[in-house]
Amino acid sequence: MDYLKVRCFHCKGEFELYNRNMNYDDKPPRCPHCLKKMDKTQWERLINAYYTFAEVNKNFRKYHEDRGEPLFQVELRSYFVKPEKIMIED
Question: Is the C or the N end of the chain the one with fewer CB within 10 Å?
Answer without folding.
Answer: C
